[in-house]
Each structure stands twice: as C-alpha cells, then as structure tokens.
Amino acid sequence: MDKSQKLIMIDTINLKKILSEEKDNNIKQIKNAAHEGLEKSLDSYKEEYKYTPLLRKIEKEFETLTPINEPIQNLDIYSKYVPKNEKYYILVINGNYQENLSNKPKEIQVVKFKDLKDQNKDQFLKTYSKHDDSKKDFFSSSNTINHNECLTFYIDKDTTLKEKISIINIIDSPNPTYFRKCFIIKKHSDISFSEEFINTSTKISFSNSVTELFLDENAKLNYYSVQNMNKNFHYNSINAFQKYNSISNFHTYSFTGEIIRNNLNIKLEDKNCYANMYGFYAIKKNSLIDNHTSVDHIDENSISNEHYKGIIDKGSNGVFNGKIFVRQKAQKTNAFQSNNNILLSDDAKVNTKPQLEIWADDVKCSHGCTVGQLDEDALFYLMSRGISKKDSISLLLSAFSSEITEKIEDENIKEEYEAMILKELEGLNHE
After folding, report:
1. Contact 164, 104 (CB under 8 A)
2. CB 348 within 8 Å of CB 312
3. Minimal CB count within 10 Å: which of 275, 310, 346, 408?
4. CA R_g for the chain
5. Which candidate, 389, 329, 318, 404, places its Cα nearest to that of 360?
6. H or E stretch including 162?
7. CA 414 – CA 423 distance, rounded (Å)
8. Which of 279, 127, 109, 270 is nearest to 212 (CA)?
9. CB contact set of 349 (below 8 Å; sequence gap of 6+)
10. In 243-362, at which residue ranges do the beta strands (DSSP E only) sit?
11. Contact 200, 102 (CB under 8 A)
12. What is the pTM of this model?
C-alpha cells in the first residue's frame, strides 16, 4: 500500500467534518497543519517502523483511522476500575474525561481545554503540539487531527503532592480511540502521575495516545506508564520539554498486546537538566513491544540515564531503538544508555539499536546492549541447592527485573510494581 492509499484511511472518512467541527480557531489551525504535514510524516515510517508493521496490521483490521464517537450508555459499570487504594484518580473512557468518576487533588487543575481559565490558555497554546513528534510520526499526526478534546493538567508553581495521581484510560470500543493530554508543571513543583491503559473490548481495537509535558524551572516529575493491552494495537507517544534544573523520572512497563509502540522523547532545553528513563517489558503469546526513545541535550551540564530491560517468550518480538543527541552547545553532558534482553524460547526475537550522535567534545557518553538466554551456571547452582527449576527461573527473572524497579523512589509504588511484575513473570516459560 502506497502513501496515498494510507492517507485514504483518514481523508475519506469525515475528515472535513472533524476539522470543521473544531470550534477553537487556534486548535483548528493546529489540526489543519497536522493534516497538511501528514504525508511528510510518512517519509520516516519505513525506517522507524521497520521491525514493527503497525500500520500494515491496522489496515487489515480497520477501514479507517477516523474515530466513531459513540455516547457512553452506562457509566456505572466503569466504577469497578476506580482504584480502591488510591487517593487521587482520573478516569478517561475512550479518550473522554469522566469528571464524575474522578477524584483530583484541589491543588491542580484537570480540565478540558475549553474549560481552562483564561490566564492558563496562553501557556497551554505555547505547549500544545509544540513538542510532540507529529512532524515525523504518522500516528502522532493522526492523533493531533482526530482527538476529540485535549485533557489539560495545570500544576501551579510551588505545588508538592506526596501521593501520586493515577490516570486510568479505558478502551471499550472496537473503533479507533484517541487520548490526548497536556501537562504544564510550573516552577518548584514536585508531582507524580501513574498512567494505565486497560482494554475491556472483546474485539480487536486500536488506541492512540499522545502526551505533552512541560517542566518549568526546578520542577520535578515522576511518571509511570503501564500497558497490559490484550487484543489491542496501541500507540503511545510521550513528549517532555524541560527547563533549567528540572528533573524527570519516566518508568514504562509493558506486557501483553497485539502491538505496543512506545515513543518517549525528551528535550533538555536548559542547563542542569536531569532525565531518567527506565523501562521493563515481559512479553509472551506472540506480542510485539517496540520502545523508541530519544533524549536531546541542547544546553550544557545536563545528565540523562536510560536503562531498558526485556524478557521475551513464546513467539514474541521485542524492539528497542534509543537515540541520544548531544548538541554542540551541550558541553559537560553525561548521557548513559543500556538495553538488556533475555530470550526464553527459540522463537522469541529482539531487535535492539542504541545510538549516539554527539557534536560536543567535553562529554561523557556511553551506550550498549545485550541479548542472551538465562545463565545456565546460575540456574544449575540454584537447582543444586534444592530449588525447583521453575522457582529457580523465577528467582533469576525477578533479579533481572529488580534493577529497574529499584529506581523507583517511592517505596509504596515500588512494592506495587514489583508485585505486578512477579505476577506477569509467573506466566512466562518455565520449561
């Protein structure tokens, strides 16, 4: 299928209607610009998706990428997804914010764009669609065009919350669904979000999520993302833009899904920025998980750490493509990148490509990857001490994943994610 045929998936089904129904002129201009650049965004598709045929798979299942917005008939059935032990939570169903089923902290704004206070709209428009990857990624462009309403999170200066805010995204439709969020985190704020995607549809579905995050001076963000997407094609793009002395910690955990594509793009715009990216994926049953990361060091004296680990089993595929850019002005940069993988079966596969592009000369940078099987000597040692093979394998896999979870600062969150990983590891190959 050529470019023009791919574009038909969007163009011929109510596209003009979608654009004409947008009431805000600023947003309409952004959507029109994304549409005009849609074909250009396909130019990089062949290379960036060479191991992940997401568009080809979607073409077989869906006639169009255009959403069909259907009203939700009974909201009460979704109350079971509200976390019992969480103080703050945001429920989003098929891309639509459910305020009545949410409990947000009073210290922050969580609203649709149209409901933003006037003094915050200018800041939002400076952020919205400025730092995403829509110019070079077809699916991000598609999200900009097709999403119904951008959910905005405004965190005013000097805001500190000890409890994390959970965002639960429900996919309950066989039609394409679009999630769009924008976070504006002002000076000296410290906040944590966890985001989970849950597919409740019994049919094959496609979900597309794009998130933009702006971190002002001295702001700190912890962001946790979990995907367990049975029978779902999922595209997830997170784009962060950091100012002076800001700190970001991203944690991505991916498990089951038809195809899951994660884009994590971070721009360190100012001096003394810190970005940490940690990821773990444990996949089986012919799933495909593709993690693409990019961190761009633009100014001097910033640090980035990136470590992704994967366990691949039973016909599944893992992909890691990590890019570090160090601009000429970015002297005194420290940037580290690592990807480690364990293959548990002969039909498991991983493609990994760590990359460095450096234009500065006073830097410390490293990257590397490993692909292998379980350590047979370690396995033999444990079994010789009377531990069963199944339990020995579980111990080794748990130890392998712990290097990622130990980076979680909050002990309660760490315990929660360790338990989640252990549950997922139980379903992997123990033979």
Report:
1. no
2. yes
3. 346
4. 21
5. 329
6. none
7. 14
8. 127
9. 312, 316, 317, 318, 343
10. 247-268, 274-283, 288-297, 303-312, 317-326, 333-343, 349-358
11. no
12. 0.93
- Candidates 317, 359, 311, 316; CA nearest to 339 is 311
Domain map (residue ranges) of the chain: 3-270
Count how many Cα atoms sit within 13 Å of the Cα of residue 133 in the half-sphere of its side chain.
Answer: 27
- Give ∠ CA 45-50-55 in degrees, rounded to 5: 55
